[in-house]
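Record now logged for everyone:
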Amino acid sequence: MTLSFYVHIPYCIKRCGYCDFNTYTPNELQDGATLEIVSNDYIDAVLKELDAAPLDQVPTIFFGGGTPSLLPADDLGRVISAIRARNGLSVDCEITLEANPDSVTAEKLKRYIEVGFNRISFGMQSSKPHVLAVLDRTHNPDNVKKAVDMARAAGFGSISVDLIYGTPGESLDDWRETVTAALALDIDHISAYALIVEGGTKLAAQIKRGDLTMPDDDLMADMYLLVDELCQTHGFSWYELSNWSKPGHECRHNIAYWENKNWWGLGPGAHSHIDGKRFWNVKHPTAYKQKLFASESPVHESEELSQSQIETEAIMLGIRMRDGLEKASLTANQIKLLEAYEVNGYLEMSVNRVVLTPTGRLIADRIVREITF
């Protein structure tokens, strides 16, 4: 068995208008505090939680957030060193850092390499200033190329950018320019996600007031098909619904999620999955630290997955992947239902496997619902 680790860094300088993640600005946590004051004992708490995790060897570690690149490399390196000493890392262990393009320097990136990182994912979102403004993103789009070039010079073997499509006011041409700009960078991986408006966010309030209007479904579909086409043309293969990469640069950490492998989430609000049991931590960093420093478990709730849940999730996750579903894992009735989608060009069925076509990926959720409920 192996065990992947996700390390949650819950700090951001500013909250983006669309963001519903479990993140906090220093001022939200402590009036007038700097990031250093707020986070100085955070890594100590994470290392205490690590003591509860299984001892299996580790093939991937992913630092997400929040903005992990706000923290000094040496702080994050303490976590990598502790996992290496305690569990052992696989020879080719993939260690990813999520980063805001504005938050890195050549010196910081070099140090991240020295403490063990080998993969970095930049939050680019868009190359269009008016789209970034609606998203409330703080970075200058010109800084993305500088950040990517500095990361490559520092020695990162894999570099990814995250993009968001379907922002209010974004046209298909805007999106084409963004994807084209991303593919012109020295990267080997792209993630492209449809914007989801979460309740309680600034963006949701703007849409509710009528200040902004979401694009219609046809435009969203065109945007997805466009990024798929452009990526394929530039040597980036689709390997998961929202992810494309050059050969050998797939994100192995995320693949571990989609294949329902074991992983442990360190940090407030982080989720874990161990042998069919899921559990997740208390959300607030202060409560998380208090529990660990009092030698208490930070776990908030847990659930044991039933066999039917495990089978349903295997279909839901597997159909998202380039390899698709094994026919042997499906019932005769499920295969019969899928045959109708094959006739309409939404999927391809070989002797052994079922794989979504680009248009089929647009309705993946509908297909899953039909064959699992």
The radius of gyration is 21 Å. The mean pLDDT is 91.
